[in-house]
Design a protein that fits this description.
By secondary structure, the chain is of the alpha/beta class. The protein has a domain of 222 residues: Ribonuclease Z/Hydroxyacylglutathione hydrolase-like (Metallo-beta-lactamase, Chain A). It is built from 10 helices and 15 strands. The strands form 3 sheets. The protein has a 7-stranded mixed sheet with strand order 1-2-3-4-5-6-7. Strand 9 and strand 10 form a beta hairpin. Helix 5 packs across helix 6, helix 7 runs antiparallel to helix 8 and helix 8 packs across helix 10. The radius of gyration is 20 Å and the shape is globular. The two termini are 27 Å apart. The structure holds zinc ion.
Length: 340
């Protein structure tokens, strides 16, 4: 999540402006939207679809997004039919405006089942049992009471993303016909449970969502609700699958610039995680808490958001080594990890 990548080949020289669609390939338009946190923007995609449009990802739910969509739908899209709204995964910058958009345009929402169901849970008020499980997760990790109370307050809410009650299911290896072209649906775990990417095979274009990004490593986090999940293993597997796509594949990511050189980027991301794993192997020669591992990997001066991400990311690396049976775990009030 924190390292920067080498400069990749960025074929589109025009810088997009917020709210002004930019054609990046025939019939494929990038719509850059602001988001009110660290990443600054999200890239959404408008695909020409016969007499109308298909939209991929929707933006964070806020007044600014509403104004941009009002403008884009009436001026750029000329109030033509929106055939589909597709959401790659449940995070609020991707899903946030889905309810508003589908209500406004009467378009059906397309998502994967795991993302739809995860969203149903993620944006609801947590039950007392869920809050308790989350507190215990952080206690076992070794966080201070102060950190725990600030992290517990940090949670998505129904104000970040208003979710439609129904959806159309997309799953891996389906094909979508958009403007008489076949888009292959790919799905991957790691960043989120069933994240969708869309691959236009005939033109080697990949709408990648957050699964692969040009300059930052997507956050790979373990959630309290599945504390032993090997999400890093799943993510590294997804990188292997992506690396098998054609070398000429052009990547349309959700954050940052469009780039060529998928295999090179995948390799960098893989090496970044390998570096983190090696750091843990060295550091855990003696018993260490999750928190100590997190501070070794990411430092101690972290904002609440970065701490939230760093806890999940450190746990993902620990769980990976546990699954490989390279680490032992001594469960206690604060769990201790040690290399075997
Ligand atoms: Zn995401």
């Amino acid at each position: 999540m924190l390292q920067r990548a080498k400069v990749l080949h960025a074929p589109i020289k025009t810088k997009p402006d917020f709210g002004i669609p930019l054609e990046v390939s025939k019939g494929i338009f990038l719509l850059k939207m602001p988001i009110p946190f660290a990443l600054d923007h999200i890239n959404l995609w408008l695909l020409r679809d016969l007499d109308g449009w298909t939209i991929v990802d929707t933006g964070f739910y806020c007044e600014e997004s509403i104004q941009i969509w009002e403008d884009v739908l009436s001026n750029f899209c000329q109030r033509e039919t929106i055939h589909k709204v597709i959401v790659t995964h449940f995070h609020p910058d991707h899903l946030g405006m889905a309810h508003w958009l589908t209500k406004k345009t009467q378009a059906p929402l397309y998502m994967s089942r795991a993302e739809f169901l995860t969203a149903q849970q993620a944006y609801q008020e947590p039950t007392p049992a869920q809050t308790l499980a989350r507190v215990e997760f952080y206690q076992h990790f070794g966080l201070s009471e102060e950190d725990i109370s600030s992290l517990i307050k940090r949670r998505p809410s129904s104000e970040d993303a208003q979710l439609p009650a129904t959806y159309w299911r997309l799953e891996a290896e389906q094909h979508l016909d958009i403007n008489h072209e076949k888009w292959r649906v790919l799905s991957f775990a790691g960043h989120s449970p069933e994240h969708l990417c869309l691959h236009l095979v005939s033109r080697d274009i990949l709408i990648a969502g957050d699964q692969v990004l040009p300059t930052i490593s997507p956050n790979i986090s373990v959630a309290y609700s599945e504390p032993d999940a090997n999400v890093l293993g799943a993510y590294l597997d997804s990188l292997l699958s992506l690396a098998r796509l054609d070398v000429s594949t052009r990547v349309l990511p959700s954050h940052g610039v469009i780039f060529d050189g998928l295999q090179e980027r995948v390799n960098d991301l893989r090496l970044g995680h390998e570096k983190g794993l090696e750091q843990i192997r060295q550091f855990c020669k003696q018993p260490r808490s999750g928190r100590a591992v997190m501070e070794e990997m990411f430092g101690t001066r972290l904002s609440v958001l970065n701490k939230f991400l760093a806890v999940g990311e450190a746990k993902a690396h620990l769980n990976f080594l546990m699954a490989k049976q390279e680490l032992s775990l001594k469960e206690a009030t604060v769990d201790q990890y040690q290399i075997i």
